[in-house]
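Data card: per-record layout.
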Amino acid sequence: MLFVPDETRKRFRTEEAMMRTRAALKRVGLRPTRQRIVLGGLIFREEHRHFTADDLHRETIATGTRLSLATVYNTLNQFAEAGFVRRVCIEGGRTYFDTDTANHQHFYVEAEDRIIDIPAGRISLGMLPEPPEGYVIDKVDILLRLVRLEPEKQAPRGYGSACRDEPERRGLRDGNLK
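The structure for this 178-residue chain is written out next.
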């Protein structure tokens, strides 16, 4: 059996994600600039993940890529508008980006500054209010804030990936970046 080092596998996944990003950008009418392709390669090389613009900026620096934080923010906002990632707003302007663009909700662990997916179907909503005339409800965002009872316990089984310290586990999906 052939042994492929983790770094080599990661590089191949990044290159594949960059090719998918280039094609997806063209499909939605965004020019496939070097910056967009590099950031798409980093974001979508693995499976599902949550991250902030600062997290992604640190990743670009670690790979030796020189991009300004403003470029990272601008590109992430363009990706969100194109439907490649989903914004998850916490408070005070703090925004996470989620590669899972399907409708789902999140836990927020304040002490660890991370978000965790709540699997679809785990939240039941009662009756929603009627929106004002001329409006429709587009989506419902729910963020449940958590505090740990015991610091050494891990996230409960059956709940989605945590955002920062857990390996990313999801690639380009939902038709936009396949």
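Known properties of this structure: The domain at 6-146 is CATH 1.10.10.10 (Arc Repressor Mutant, subunit A). The mean pLDDT is 80.

See the next section for split statistics.
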